[in-house]
Amino acid sequence: MTSSKTNGNLPDLDLGWMDQHGPWDTHAEPGKYGFTLADIQIGEYGQVPEESNNQTGRPRGSKPRANSMRLGGYTVRTKSDIWLENASFLYEEALQRQWSSATDVPWESIKPLPDDVEQAQCQMATFLTEVEFVAGDVPARWISSTTPDYFEARQVLLAQVMDESRHMDVFRKRALANGGGLMRATGATAGFVGGIDLSRDFTEMSSRLHISGEGAVLTIFRMGELMAYNDAEKTIYRLCAQDEARHVAFGVMHLRYMSQNEPDRREEIHSYLDEAEGSMLTDAANPAGRLTQTSESLCILLGGGSDKFDEGFRKLVAIRRRQLQEYRKRVISAGFGDRFDNGRSRLNELMAQAAA
Questions:
Q1: How far apart, in Å, are the Cα atoms of 51 and each of 47, 61, 79, 118?
Q2: Per-residue H/E/C for the chain
Q3: Residue 69 above 60 pLDDT?
Q4: Which residue among 19, 32, 142, 286 has the highest number of C-beta atoms inside a 10 angstrom radius?
């Protein structure tokens, strides 16, 4: 369609934008779960390029605009650098499972606790507020670096940032809800964050954040029932666990896609796993060493008070073992289980030490 003249005082119209670019008879229809991202991945609009030169913010499938300026410094322009097969599913799940820390947590169930237990809860809440700040801050940096052609993965990361912001506020609320307050900052994330900040690409960051860091926190959330003293705390850990499981799944599925499509990078990814097992896993397998303030608070919560510290410590050892076991399952699912068979991983040794 070309430009046309109009009569009267109306300006000349240029209707060139009406020239058809994609197939006109494209009809996306809702499926059994509603109108999801998967339902619009049809025809040309569902084709994801292996490489993208889109630096203008142009939506995938739309016609380029002449003389467009660069809008973003998109460094993630190769599909394997960020892709995962179930991104649409994870995004839709994130939408359907949104919850409010203001109205979905039964705050009224919180009753006065012994001072040592309340202090331990507040210390854990302080620690988890730190952790969730990092878990939201780090992926946010990669969203604006990813080309719009891979918008499905970007959508999942955007949802993760929202999840983590809610986690930050719910643990802060718990610290202030029962006469306690925020305790001492642990600094436990300093070295971990420094390592993530040095990541040169998304896959390196994801292997450190999603597989190692958030995976360990997910185990704590799943064991939250053991250290909860009311329905509010049980609800907090349950809701945070369902979110965290989705974030961990992103990392697992991305590593799986990378492993299958970029086999030359397998050795590189193994090195990131070596790093994780040499730091976090060593500490997890040797909880009898000098306890951190977070571990001490966990022992008090798990035991039922500072006078039952020994019982809490035994339960903490069980949690550390479970962290190792779940880490192993994630790595196998991501396609890197060979490290446990060829002797490269120290995990078998560490799990034997933890069981001793």
A1: 12, 14, 6, 53
A2: CCCECCCCCCCCECCHHHCCCCCCCCCCCCECCECCHHHHCCHHHHCCCCECCCCCCCCCCCCCCCCCCCCCCCCECEHHHCCCCCHHHHHHHHHHCCCCCCCCCCHHHCCCCCHHHHHHHHHHHHHHHHHHHHHHHHHHHHHCCECHHHHHHHHHHHHHHHHHHHHHHHHHHHHHCCCCCCCCCCCCCHHHHHHHHCCCCHHHHHHHHHHHHHHHHHHHHHCHHHHCCCHHHHHHHHHHHHHHHHHHHHHHHHHHHHHHHCHHHHHHHHHHHHHHHHHHHHHHHCCCCCCCHHHHHHHHHHHCCHHHHHHHHHHHHHHHHHHHHHHHHHHHHCCCCHHHHCCCCCHHHHHHHHHC
A3: yes
A4: 142
Mean pLDDT value across residues 134-156? 93
CA 85 – CA 104 distance, rounded (Å): 31
**Cα–Cα distance, 177 to 277 (Å, whole number):** 37
Q: How far apart are CA 32 and CA 43, in angstroms?
A: 20
Among 235, 240, 54, residue whose Cα is nearest residue 131: 240
Alpha carbon 277 to its chain centroid, in Å, reads 19
Q: What is the mean pLDDT of residues 168-186?
A: 94
Q: For residues 331 and 164, what is the distance between their CA atoms, to the nearest angstrom?
A: 23
Q: 1.10.620.20, 3.90.1640.10, 1.10.357.20, 2.40.440.10: which CATH number matches 79-353?
A: 1.10.620.20
Domain residue extents for the chain: 1-73, 79-353
Query: With contact defined as beta carbons under 8 Å apart, do 299 and 309 qualify?
Result: yes
pTM (predicted TM-score): 0.90
User: What is the model's pLDDT at position 25?
Assistant: 81
Q: How far is CA 295 from CA 50, 119, 214, 300, in A?
A: 45, 13, 17, 9
